[in-house]
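This section describes the prediction task in plain terms. A model, or a person checking by hand, is given the sequence of a single protein chain and must write out its three-dimensional structure as a string of tokens. No templates, partner chains or ligands are provided. The sample shown here is typical of the held-out split.
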Amino acid sequence: MMNFFGKPVELLERSDLEILARNEIAEGLYMEYKEDFPHNLAKIVASFANTFGGWILIGVDARNPQNMPLSFPGIDLVGAPKDRLRHIWRDGINPGPLFTSRLVDLSESPGRGVLVARIEESGYPPHITRDGRIYRRNSEGSDPVPESDRYILDRLFEKGRQNKGQVKALIAQKLAEVETGVPTIKVIICPVPLSQNMIHP
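The expected answer:
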């Protein structure tokens, strides 16, 4: 997935936000800006996970014809915005997709910050929202669209089946490497889908 900052989410600082304005990064297939928590946040998160992954920044003014960030007014840090995002993710999407978030404090506005969330492309789609719909990103605009194309839906389900098959094959391979006759416990942990090269040997 595209990383507009060139660094992990956990390391983002206030100065990194200016990259978006300086490079004129508009909303679209990989990016969504909101001034505050939108009512359709679960749909946005699910649509990113079901497509190519993406970024949501809450606390950004992008109200212009180009949907580019004009300023960073931030959101109130009272009320634990990261917890609010987690609750929406947990209660509004099934299964919950993989994401990472960071609250970037605004030094020029004490008590306010921008919530940055990076949603990974899912290896186990589709992710269904509480309204029972499957959303995907639309390259024509930034809004999530409900998916009704049978071919696309079949591909989403097949992607999840393939990833599960890869995990099973990896486990079978690792267990076959264990010497027979020797008492052994082997623990295999797969924190992210195998298709994502996030862990280096």
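For orientation: The CA atoms of residues 10 and 102 lie 6 Å apart.
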